[in-house]
Each structure stands twice: as C-alpha cells, then as structure tokens.
Amino acid sequence: MNQRPVLTPPGEHKKVLLHSCCAPCSGEVMEAMAASGIDYTIYFYNPNIHPREEYELRKSENIRFAEKEGIPFIDADYDTDNWFARAKGLEWEPEKGKRCTMCFDMRFERTALYAHEHGFPVITSCLGISRWKDMDQINGCGERAAAKYPDLAYWTFNWRKGGGAQRMLEISKREQFYQQEYCGCIYSLRDTNKWRTSNGREKIEMGVKFYGREGIADQTESPGSCA
Fold first, then answer.
1. Residue 202 bridge partners (DSSP)
2. What is the pLDDT of residue 2?
3. What residues does each domain of the chain span?
4. Is the Cβ–Cβ distance between 20 and 44 less than 8 Å?
5. Which helix (H) or strand (E) holds 172?
6. Residue 58 in 3-state DSSP?
7. How many CB atoms are located within 10 Å of the residue 195 CB?
8. Residue 165, exposed/middle/buried by CB under 10 A (0-12, 13-18, 19+)?
9. Which candidate, 175, 163, 161, places its Cα nearest to that of 3?
C-alpha cells in the first residue's frame, strides 16, 4: 500500500467532522486522518440515497468500519421529504449539474450546523475521492456551508491524490465493502440504468455486489458509482 502523506487540516486543528456518504469512499479518508493523528468523527447525513433499503445497507457498512476503527459515528436524520422538495424542478438535471449542487449544499449545511453546535472547527467530506465527482463543485458547496459560521472551515484536501484513489480500492477489497453502482438518488439510479441498458448491460441489482469477492464486475465501468 502506498505511503500516506502527513495531513494538516486548516488552522492546524486536530479535530474534524467528516461527512461520509459510504464506506468505500470514506475508508481511505478515515485511515489517512488516523495516520496523521487527527481526532475525527463521522457524520452520516445522506437523505438523497434511494431506496431506503439501499440507504440502510450503505449506512450499516459505514457503521461496521467505524466500529472496527473505534471512530464515533453520528447517524443524522433520513429526511427524504426535505430532499425531494429541494430537488423539485431538477429531476432531469445531468450528473454534476444543479441537482448535485443542491444535494451537496443540503448535506454540507447540516454537517456545518452540527459542527458549529458541537465544537468542531473543521469539516470535510469523502465525496470528492470518487473520480466521478467534480472536486470544484464539492469544495464550493463545502466552503459555502462553512462560511455561515465564523468558527468553522471546510477542508478542501484532494483525497484522490498521493495514491488515495488506489488505496480507496485496496481498502474496499480488504474490508469487502458493499459495492454500490450508482451515486445514490432515485434520478442517479434511473440514469445509470438507462446507460447500462444502452450499453448492453443488466440493470443494477442492489445488495448483491461486494468488493473483493469472486465474480464481481468492475464498478468503474458505470458512471455515477463511487470508484
């Protein structure tokens, strides 16, 4: 496994609230922060994930790894009604479009509020480690959320660099994390299945694929997934 860089959060703080979307994306971020002696807590707030069964599976995998590593895990509300209300009119936006900005804003706003209320000086997210995500879009949303509080900063570190993307896959295979094949929301599921069908592939079957297990297809072939 490639050597991790020594990380220094903004302001040289050592306490960080990590917004996590899933175990595969957060695994490397978690281990990287631990290796640098950073005191971090996971904040799981992802009302975009659809359906509920998929949400619970992704959350349970994240909890499993957090418990293994001895990391505090904050399980926030699954307020899907709020998410769908904010997504109204954005149903046909493309991946990385206005709907994704809304979604990042919503999740980071709640993360920033929790951090402000509970004494975390820095927030960050593992969302940007996926090569399917726009780092500038994610960082802009994070910085905008943190800017509402004078005592809070958003850490824009690029978790993909320095071997991070490769370690993400290595950790996922080592831990045999659940291997989701779409970003999370109902519209991502719709569009990913449309792409798969047009490319001669079967539609997504939820809850059956895990990294590191025999017979797993290469997830990187599907746009919108985590790898």
1. none
2. 57
3. 13-176
4. yes
5. helix 164-175
6. helix
7. 16
8. middle
9. 163
Amino acid at 58: R
Helix/strand number for the chain, H first, E second: 7, 5
Residues in the chain: 227
- Distance (Å, whole) CA 180 – CA 173: 13
Contact of 166 with 131, CB cutoff 8 Å: no
pLDDT number for residue 221? 47
Q: Token match 């960050």: residue?
A: 124
What SS3 state is found at 199?
Answer: coil
The pLDDT averaged over each successive group of 10 residues in the chain (227 residues) is 80 97 97 97 98 98 98 97 98 97 98 98 96 94 98 96 93 97 96 97 96 63 55
Phi and psi, residue 19, nearest 5°: -75, 125
Write phi, then psi, for 18 (nearest 5 degrees).
-100, 110
d(CA 138, CA 141): 5
Return the residue matching tokens 């297809």. Answer: 217
Q: Considering the domain 13-176, what is its CATH architecture?
A: 3-Layer(aba) Sandwich (3.40)
> Does residue 16 contact residue 33 with C-beta atoms inside 8 Å?
yes
Nearest CA to 192 out of 207, 180, 182 is that of 182
